[in-house]
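Support request, please re-run this one:
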Amino acid sequence: MKHKGTGVSPPAAGKPISVGLEVAAGGLEVRPGGMLVQKRNSDSNPNSNPVPNIKVKVKYGSSYHEVIISSQASFGELKKILAGITGLHTQDQKLIYKEKERDSKAFLDNVGVKNGSKIVLIEDELSREKRFVESRKNAKMEKASKEIADIRFEVDKLAKQVASIELEINGGKKVVETVLLNLIELLMTQLIKLDGISADGDVKLQRRMQVSGLHKSTDVCPPSD
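Re-run finished. Output below.
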């Protein structure tokens, strides 16, 4: 039955109404949260007109660099290119356009960057220092973890020997005292090495567990007379 005044048949019961499909086909897309935004050319029909490249002039210190990049690229993509040119890590870069720092997620065309536009690149010294400190911290933790692993390997070997001697002692067998004392001394040497390792977080926990294991390994019965 046709609806009066429109000549359009109402949808069948239970059939969803295709609202917004024509809009989406017209160049819009639905982003998380249900927001409709204009599709970028890279997301549209590949047979449509290709996105043009532009040439931007980037000033870094006293040097100028001309970069050819997609007009719809992000500032983050530009940073990657500049990292290869200048050797400056992307996290240490600040890109200034029209006297305003631009976020890496912002798109060039959205803020008005065009062919021939000038952008200023400066080094973020705070970010560089923070990254340097973090890098040193990670390297220190990796070194400490390796040292603990090496000590654990030595302790496991010595602990097996101590356990074997302890069984002999408990079984009433006489053991040369110097043999046991020598093993205990070697274990204590490993304990001193552990005490000299500076560690934080998980590595510190590893060190604590290893120290506890060492104390147990050295807690053996004295040799029988």
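Residues 15-26, 220-225 have pLDDT under 50 and may be disordered. The chain has three domains: 18-45, 53-123, 130-218.
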